[in-house]
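Just wondering, does anyone understand these tokens?
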Amino acid sequence: RDVLLQVLDGWATGARTAPEGGGAGPAPAGADHGPPFDLDGSLALLDGDRVFLAELAGAFLEDLPRMLFAVEAAVSAADPDEVCRAAHALKGAVRVFAAPGPAALAEALEKAGRDGDADGIARLWPRLLDAVAGLRAALEPVAGR
């Protein structure tokens, strides 16, 4: 919960820093430190429809806190099955934006939940929060915010 609050506070203040403990372990494949999302890739997925992309970005930003709290609740409850479900939902949401880093981290968290890997969950969750914070910041102007 503290990690989530730290990231959300960073969003509110405009400071985006990695949560404490978020640097442990290797990044999953595709979770490099490139741009948070690929505008051209997103548009290709949506047949070039910029208006629809803006609507999707707005809807994603509206729903993001609920999705993050779902993962946080599952992590806090040490419920790997629920971590798997919540991470899967988040993975699907970020893939719309051709966001390889957040998608790879969500997929890795989903797998850690499916495998009951408590250490992997603990290592990946703060990293996913940081990656999603970058995606959120990049999508705000797309959504007209």
The radius of gyration is 14 Å. Residues 3-25 have pLDDT under 50 and may be disordered. The CA atoms of residues 19 and 47 lie 36 Å apart.
